[in-house]
Give the backbone structure.
Amino acid sequence: MSGSVLRVSDLDVDIRLRRSVVHAVRGVSLEVAEGETVGIVGESGCGKSTLGLALAGLLPGNTTVRGSIRLGDRELAGLAERDLRRVRGTEVGIVFQDPMTSLNPTLRIGAQVGEAMRVQMGATKAEARAAAAEMLELVGLPRPAEQLDRFPHELSGGMRQRVVIAAALVCRPKLLIADEPTTALDVTTQAQIMDLFDRLRQTLGMATLLITHDMGVVAGHADRVFVMYAGREAETGRTAEIFDQPRHQYTAALLDSVLRLGTPRKSELATIPGRPPDLTATVAGCPFVPRCPAASAECSAQFPPVSGAGSHHWLCHHPVSQDEDSRVTEAPR
Amino acid sequence: MTVNLAGPPADHDQAPLLSLVDVTKHYRPGGLLARSAAPVQAVSDVSLDIAAGSTLGIVGESGCGKSTLGRMVVGLEKPTMGEVRLRGTSLSAMSRPERRTARYDVQMMFQDPYAALNPRMTLAHIIEEPLRAKGGLTSQQRRSHVRQLAEETGLSVSQLDRYPRELSGGQRQRVGLARALATSPALIVADEPVSALDVSVRSQILNLMTALQDEHQLSYLMVSHDLTVIHYLADHIAVMYLGQIVESGSPAALFSAPAHHYTRALLDAVPEPVPGRVGPISSIRGELPSASEPPSGCRFRTRCPAARARCAEQVPRLREFGPGHRAACHFPLTEPVPAPAADVREAP
């Protein structure tokens, strides 16, 4: 893939607790190209947020990161905290779920949006203010010049999230990490914010990692999807490949359990039995075995190898067969 | 304003399980400016019925008044005007013992089960508490009832000695459901019961709610911003915007032929898990206006793609668009049923 902005190889993240170690991310490799959006999906506790924090360099002190994180042609793993902070402020932008907790309630919006410009890029107060106003306009805040002197509590949730996005993008980062950016918002606001991401991506050309549990949001806005289970990659492919021809049993189960407007009313809904595994334990085989309808002895004994070709890969001993699945139309390779 | 002019004496056998009659709730803002500030009109003139064994879904965005409505139904808030009737009797006209019975007849289930459960109580204790408050059972009877509730809601009896923090979100929501069921209510008000849950767990809880409804002839008042959840569970849907019902009807009517532009916008905004399919770019713009100074005329007009001069001048009334399907819009998306020449019942 040409123009790859982010290249992660064999990333492990361990979180040390008092009596145990959580293996939150295991052997993850992924790439994001310029202007591309990759959706990271999976249930709570699958490691998707930890992955985002690791890439943003925001993990707390009790964590160990192994593997390589290349942003452009620079290796971030092993970078000193001071250098990392600089990269974080200028080359990586981050948007979290709850805009109220990302904003400082005592600081005016202009100061918060322009902060990274001043601190990381040495801009003057006036330059930062001008950049902030420009950014607020870009994210669609009405009357941006007036908003600069307001406080976060004076804005609605949707407007606050626009401010957070403006602050994340003010230094024109190469990579934007958006962790559940619309989960706390109403549906119509969500649609507006996702529109905004699409538009900004075209205007600014940044690579985006969209971390979410909402398959609907991913389907509409990601170019590629990376499905995680138990801290590992389960399947990755173009959005259409994942949604139309899921091969990993977990991806298929996840998609089956999504409620749609077309789901027959009060019908028995498909579920995934059990719950995601405890990540302090290490298992030899596939971590999905206890919940998998197709698991065999082989699955418990050995972690599945990578299968597939081109853009579509899966790690499953018994992939969903393409013809038995009704939603599949055989696609030529 | 006359508040307690109760309607005609209700026929208790014919009356729906629960009705809201012209319910309005205003909040006076607190603080220094309390006197001069306009009240927040959280709910304005809402009338709704819930039949026994059925589900009423209330859908709308933050600040539309749907949660306030739910809180009035369980008696956590009192309407400023209008009344909430349980089996035909107004809650405000009930004697003390009647109100006590009513309280056990209508129970509530919250969005965030973690915040709703006492962290220092075991699950057994949490589920048992309403039974203890209601009285009339020996401790042994209560314990056996708790075990039965646990089984019914898919919790294992061995989990009953645990504390809420040891549970997953889905299990906590099961506890919330078991607790709500403890007093054998006729109606459960469920405020965003699955919106904090993962998709796979969400399906489990919805399956459970459907099964329990069948088994116990339960009614639900389901409050949610999620149209897919409302569509799945509700027999009748009311769409709220800024404290008012803008459209109500069966799921089939509302989803296949919505009359109100707000309902259409909500439907368009649902992210469907179909790759590449992004709905028509958010058809409504701007922000929810303040509930203390709602727009004149139609409250939705400031964000409506079809608004015209008349919308600012005249409040649209709910009109019939089909059997049980009503909407309040001057320029609806579908044709209303022609009104009868003279509507005698509407005489003041």
The CA atoms of residues 217 and 286 of chain B lie 42 Å apart. Chain B has a mean pLDDT of 88. The radius of gyration of chain B is 21 Å. Chain B touches chain A through 47 residues (CB under 8 Å).
